[in-house]
Specification:
This protein is α+β, with helices and mostly antiparallel strands and about 260 residues long. The chain has seven helices and seven strands, in the order αααβαββαββααββ. Strand 4 and strand 5 form a beta hairpin. About 20% of the residues are buried. Bound molecules: adenosine-5'-diphosphate. The site of adenosine-5'-diphosphate (ADP) has 23 residues, from helix 5 and helix 7.
Length: about 260
Amino acid sequence: HNDERIPLKGYTEIREIAEDFNGIMDKANETDQSRAEFVSNVSHELKTPITSIKVLAESLNTQENVPIEVYQEFMQDIVTEIDRESKIIEDLLTLVRMDKTTATLNITSVNMNELLEMTLKRLKPIAQKKNIELLFESFRPVVAQIDEVKMTQVISNLVENAIKYNVDDGWVHVSLNADYQYFYIRVEDSGIGIPEESQNKIFERFYRVDKARSRETGGTGLGLAIVRNIILLHHGTIKVHSEENIGTTFTMRVPLNYVEVQ
Ligand code: ADP
């Protein structure tokens, strides 16, 4: 029944294929300038926690008879900065590994309903801290050929963002659907939204709408760049729709059957 999967070359399909192609070409056309900019961003991001650690350690070192409470507070700040540094390095390594080749995907048949339920269960405690309602709705059972670890990271990143950039007592709705060719996951939140002029930049490495807010919540600015890369490796697409102070919806579309492209 393979012929069932050959897409109809209708207007929408052709437009979608053109959009996918543009996305891939954007990536291929990365200029030396953007690479240089990336390296400069990396240096800056890596230096920020180190600078804080240095200041904290030096101020403890140059004071005499530091009270134990002050000492402990500074030490806790140092640990927080080290955690931040580790997260940046970890996210950077994830990105660099994915840039090399698609061969890094470990494709198996995965029950998407179970994957989503398990991932959301793990994130529930974070949602509860802000009294956010985390709902999952599935329109049908879906089994897809994907890299389970990487797809779990995509969902985690999107839902963690939906919680982070949300208001207290808000909600996050995740839904799963499929047709004969693709599965669709939608992550919708009642959060702060993304200004229109930023919506096409959020998938760039290190781009944040509000640096302070991202930093406070332990963000690296790499989460959505990782999401986009993983989805592109699966030959899928991701779109964002957002309104400030109302909420944001991310919709991804990924083929059910993975086909390796030579
Ligand atoms: P970060 O580590 O800063 O969260 P991401 O790459 O995950 O980095 O996201 C980039 C930026 O996009 C965030 O800093 C935030 O400004 C914006 N953003 C992402 N998801 C949402 C969302 N659900 N609602 C509002 N803004 C978001």
